[in-house]
C-alpha cells in the first residue's frame, strides 16, 4: 500500500537565526521524521540568509516551516517563499508579521472583540528607570516568542527589571508592559479555524518561561483544563476569534490566562508557528482528540498544498 506522501519532496526549514533556534531544531527533526514515515522525500534545511539559493537548488514540492521566532515566524521567510512560488505550511506574510508584533496584534484582536490585557509599549530605558505600571506587571519583548526575555515584577517590588537595559539585551528598544493576570495558564490549539481543546499548564518554575516550555518535566499539562465549562467554552471562542481576526491559516496556538477568583479570561497572544517538540501543546491536544503526530503533520502539509503559494500574502 502506498504511503500518503510517496513521491513528494518536502523541504523542512529548521534552526534559523532567532533566539529560538534550539527549539526549532527539535521541532524540525520531529516533523522531518514524521514526513519520512509518511513516505515523503525530506530535505532538512537549516535556514540561513542564503535560503532562497538553497531552496532554488533543492527544488522541493512544498516547504514545511518548522522555524520559530524572529525571521522564521514574522513574515520574512514567508516573503522569501512567496517570491519563490513555493507552497508552504502555516500562516502567510501578513498574519505572521501581525501576530509576531504583540502591540499591533493586540489592537487587531481587541477590535474584533477578543479580551486582551491592558498595558502598552514603552521605551526600555523608561521601564528600567521607574515602574510604568503599578506592580504586579509583566515586561516582555514586543516581537519574541517562547517567553524569551520575559520578567514578572511582583507586588511590592522596589525596582523595575534592570535586565532590559543590560548590554546583553537584544530584543529592541520598545518593550510590552502589561498588568499581571493572576491565576492559570491556558493554551488552545486552532486547526483550520476550529479550536481543539483547552490545556491547563502548571509550570515547575515561577511562571511558564522558556525552561518550563521546553525542558523535560518543565511543566505539567492537564488535558482537558480543570476550569468551569463557561470559561472552557469562552477560551475556545476567543481563540477561534483571534485566529480569524489575524487572518491565520493552518495550525495556531493561543495562550491565555484565567483568574478564577475574578472570573477573568484574557488572550495573551497567538503563536503562528506552534512548537512541534515532544512536550509541545498542539500535538498533545491533537493526540487527545484522536489525531496522531504523523497525521497532524500530514494535515499541515495537505493544507499547504491546498492553498498553494497563492493567498500567502493575505493570510
TrEMBL record:
GO molecular function (one): ATP binding
Cofactor: Mn(2+); Mg(2+)
PROSITE patterns documented for this protein: ATP_GRASP, DALA_DALA_LIGASE_1, DALA_DALA_LIGASE_2
Protein name (record): D-alanine--D-alanine ligase
Alphabetical GO biological process terms: cell wall organization; peptidoglycan biosynthetic process; regulation of cell shape
Free-text function comment from the UniProt entry: Cell wall formation.
Lineage: Bacteria, Pseudomonadati, Pseudomonadota, Alphaproteobacteria, Caulobacterales
Positions annotated to bind Mg(2+) 2: 269, 271
Subcellular location(s) of the protein: Cytoplasm
Similarity section: Belongs to the D-alanine--D-alanine ligase family.
Organism: Caulobacter mirabilis
Catalytic reactions on record: 2 D-alanine + ATP = D-alanyl-D-alanine + ADP + phosphate + H(+)
EC number assigned by the record: 6.3.2.4
